[in-house]
Amino acid sequence: MTRCIRRAAALALLLLAALLVNAARVQVFQADALNANSANRRTLLARYEQPRGDILVDGDAVTGSRDSGQALRYERTYTEGPLYAPVTGYASQVYGASLVEGAEDPVLSGTSPLLAPLWGGLTRKRQPGGDAVTTIRAGVQRAAFDGLAGRRGAVAAVEPSTGRVLALVSSPSYDPGRLSGTGRAVKDAWSALNADPRQPMLNRAIRQTYPPGSTFKIVTAAAALDAGAVTDADAPTTAPDPYVLPGTSTALPNEASGCANASLAYAVVVSCNSVMAHLGVKVGLAGMLEAVGRFGFNDPRLRIPSAVAKSNFDTRMGPDQLALSSIGQFDTTATPLQMAMVAAAVANGGELRRPYLVERSTDRRGTTVAQPDHHDYGQAMSPATAVRLQQLMVDVVEKGTGTNAAIPGVRVGGKTGTAQNGVGNRGLPYAWFISWAQAPDAGQPAVAVAVVVEDAEANRADISGGGDAAPLAKAVMEAALKG
Amino acid sequence: MTAPTAADEPPPALRLPRRRGVELSLLVGALLVAGYGYAEVGLARSGALPRDALRHGAGLALLALLAHLAVRRRAPYADPLLLPIAVLLNGLGLVLIHRLDLETPHTRAASAQLLWSTIGVGLFIAVVVAVRDHRVLQRYAYLCAATALALMVAPVLFPAVNGARIWIRLGGLSFQPAEFAKILFALFFAAYLAANRNALAYTGRRVWRLQLPTGRVLGPIAAIWLLSVGVLVLERDLGTSLLFFGLFVVMLYVATGRTGWIAVGLLLAAVGAAAVGSFEPHVHGRVEDWLHPFASIEAGQGPGQLAQSLFAFAAGGMFGTGLGSGHSVLIGFAAKSDFILATAGEELGLAGLTAVFLLYALLIARGYRTGLALTDPFGRLLAVGLASILALQVFVIAGGVTGLIPLTGMAMPFLAQGGSSVVTNWIIVALLIRVSDRARAPLPAVAAGAPVPVRTESR
Questions:
Q1: What is the ipTM of this complex?
Q2: Phi, psi for A412 (deg, rounded to 5)
Q3: What is the pTM of this model?
């Protein structure tokens, strides 16, 4: 009987070995595959188990977290949702995260290895979410948001010498807090926001492109000066008024007078179509493409760190199309941020800084864990050209179409634009204004701004860059100049 | 460890070490582990010690102390490992159930489990105190068999719960009679086989390597066993029928020493499993789920219980998420009972799970060891039977939730939520304490001044 008991015990030992081997199989060898199974809710649960880190504007959190008491415990809250929605984006338990919420998600949710000290990987302890410090300045953002006052449009403001994005406003906006949780209300809000014809979730400042209209003339002027198509900005050009598009019988009219054979300087200040179209053709497609590329057009990889829609200048065009493109029409389109970059390049002596929205990310205690590498985008134009264009843009504000943007005692340069819109120009035109401002005692310009207002409610005759957009740009510049 | 110490003093009484002090210190250790686990859950979940920590800790400690005093007084030579392991497993189970209670508001399964543990320990003490010598139980073999059969048939009169007709519900109380029946059957098998083992092994016709006993000897036990398994199959309690079958084969093998019984047993088990697995829809579903645990995910219906259990084990990895930090509540309604091991696997990791398995292995090994140390066939068979119940049950349920074998609804001894289960397992440990006390106690011959006996074992 003893032998049999021993054998029975040996059988039990065998069963134990089978259990242990099988447990090791599941917990070690198959663990990664099981953890990665899309039906496994643990990843999701772990993600929302702790409060999300915050997005900071001027040192203050514009976000928060709320303990919902649900399985997915912490939900995102926003202190001023609509104001900062084009910056923060949303962080939804159903629909994922966008903009800074999306780009900085590893830090905010605490999964980033940057947050974990050396032993973090060993203990597998989840780190508290870190913060994302933005470059946005609350006063500038507020001025832009209030200036748009619910009209459709966008404002982008950058600091020319650094590329810091000071304001990013899109209107009409929405409250991303409505999308935070998981319930029925969130799904309803999502459908409603997506179905809204006013497209409140569209980030017009970086994700929507508009024909830039006359504001693009700054780019064409830079190309003409750099390419040597114009050697003296004050010398008369040979552009007739009206200008007949090459190879066609279509005449390009001017709104301004005195454009026949006008100088580049005069053409910029009063916004002559004929002169700039003529110069664009003179520079040629290759030269124009090279110039617009230096400003950031046709770059699909621009990120701030969220992706910025590609601003377009066609690469294959006939001379007539090139002529139209050179005055910001035809297929030429730009995001407001792109046009702010144009103004910034001029203001910064031709050197274009890469725009960025996130200054640094920190851990919960505020210690910096990552500081993205901010570098040059490149030399958009020669310094001499930049100095020349600065003066022309100042002239626009002082005695041209942009007088509404003038700030007493401050050096302000600007350029108006009224872009035609829609098939056969039946749509309402877009009012543009790009500008920059430099305080008298400052060595650097404080801000470069691009404003676009697409106000469908307004009387068509009232829409013009100088009338609608310039006062708004002025308010934004004033806010930026304040300390 | 039971080597006789040199007796310098004239009285010839051989002083075997009783090891009650070892038992007490191991008990303190077990209580500390359970208490630490309880505190850990509280700290992980709310950053503070649980409010009722003291009450639960003191409750468990009081039970352990009472059980220890009963053993010290009435079974002084009992194996010192049995009680501490039972207390540790019971305590760990309370921690895990309490931890899962926190996920599901308005349930207080841990308090109920503590109440059942109290009843269990009460019965433990009753058995240790009332049964002075296990051989007395031999007399009640047929009473045991009759009671067991009656218990097992009774649930047929009550409605099925979750597809299995294995519950008796009286008022608010419900219990699984098959849990109690398994002890009674082990007693009956041990008694019957001990009385008839020679007849079983040596009479009748020999077919191949199997000595077929005469129907007169094999008949009664086979009939009772067949009846019980038949009832279980009718009640769709596949796990318990597997347990009874395994128990019967192991005890028959140990009693007769005929390897052929193992072969016949395996063959019958295979045929039976294949037949039930393919014809019985409830069981067939379990087998399908075992073969394809992720089929429901692919069908777009989300993960089933087994898939959730495997997710839980995987999430634990080597060292686990820590008590209170896992999500095994996703498993669903049976998380505290059938699938409690998944919580252990997730929050304690492979390391903790291995420790739990080794605790069971140690408990079972001490049972087999007691069987080896005893001299009377009934005691030996009883110890082997009780240890085998634990071994088979742990294997069937642990293998089920980790995807090794098809899932059968059974309770992890001591760990799982379930009143009848906790109570029965305390009785099993009480009986093991009782037989181990006999196995380790000095032989009466020593007291009479006879030459120091060699602990002989019949081979």
A1: 0.88
A2: -125, 130
A3: 0.71
